[in-house]
Amino acid sequence: MAQGLIEVERKFVTGPETEGRLQELGGTLEHRVTFRDIYYDTPELNLMRTDYWLRQRENSGWELKIPGMAGVSGPHNVYLELTAEPEIVAQLYKVLGVLAQESAPSKLIVYLQRFRPQDYQCLLEVYGSREKPEGTNDADSGLG
């Protein structure tokens, strides 16, 4: 795994008087940062149940937080945060049980399946007894 940044995060429980007390001590708000994260999971919550957290951070890209202590079950407070898409995909294949060598259908095949099913069926009939059309996989044979 590639070397990355180490993020140290400390969380504090604050009350309604915290901001005022900080100002009394000379504290000032230097800047405010806001962002939006969109989290993704399967309908069965496979990622969350294995303590994996896949998110797309606004203006920043994809991130996958995975437990940093291998072999320890349950919620963690030490996570590795992956931001390189190939590493994220490799980890997702592992946790979701998908083989990395499976190929996804081409954009054209997906388009035909969704919006031109009759044309897609004709394509399958033409290539049915020969080699499959480029961009199809075994799952394609059950469609139609």
UniProtKB/TrEMBL annotation:
Pfam families with a match to the protein in the record: CYTH (PF01928)
Molecular-function GO terms, alphabetical: magnesium ion binding; thiamine triphosphate phosphatase activity
InterPro entries according to UniProt: CYTH-like_dom_sf (IPR033469), CYTH_domain (IPR023577), THTPA (IPR039582)
CYTH domain location: 6-97
A GO biological-process term: thiamine diphosphate metabolic process
Domain of life: Eukaryota
PANTHER family listed in its UniProt record: THIAMINE-TRIPHOSPHATASE (PTHR14586)
Protein name: Thiamine triphosphatase
Organism of derivation: Pipistrellus kuhlii (Kuhl's pipistrelle)
